[in-house]
Predict the 3D structure of the following.
Amino acid sequence: ETGVTQSPTHLIKTRGQQVTLRCSSQSGHNTVSWYQQALGQGPQFIFQYYREEENGRGNFPPRFSGLQFPNYSSELNVNALELDDSALYLCASSLILATYNEQFFGPGTRLTVL
Amino acid sequence: AQTVTQSQPEMSVQEAETVTLSCTYDTSESDYYLFWYKQPPSRQMILVIRQEAYKQQNATENRFSVNFQKAAKSFSLKISDSQLGDAAMYFCAYGASNTGNQFYFGTGTSLTVIP
């Protein structure tokens, strides 16, 4: 069984730039959720993708967007980067019809915006 | 709105002793799930234990157990026989089927294990 993987591990961007983060879901999982974890905070839900469509969104502006591909992998895109976007971005996969909605997390991508 | 509160930013425990981490939550739902996740310094979030709200019996996983008080909306984690490898950030999380698998996390408790 392959776990959740994310790339890149670290990323440094400057304000105003755009960034794409990638996630491969765990084998057999059809749903991917993205979370932003600021330093010293718990993860905050950005959005979730199921069957290649957005299936729920947290309180994040439209410059945060995503994609899910037929193989269930996913991308998180952030446009017009701001300093406050500096955070650990976590991807989690799950099987949406599971009885207890357990999510399996990847190691995260550390984004630094200068 | 659902909120999850962890009131202990930091906790410490002597190796082999027992420690309890606190978590409270707020929801109007009756069908939901609660989780404790561990995030070691390597960053990968690992599920420690889960509890379905409809189950009255407290969940147990080896040295980890919970005290689930549904009426009080309390969900504490007890770690017995603490080991050095238990040192990590611990996050309490809430999820419900009607929130589309969205998890709500607390701010975490940093656990230090003293040799």
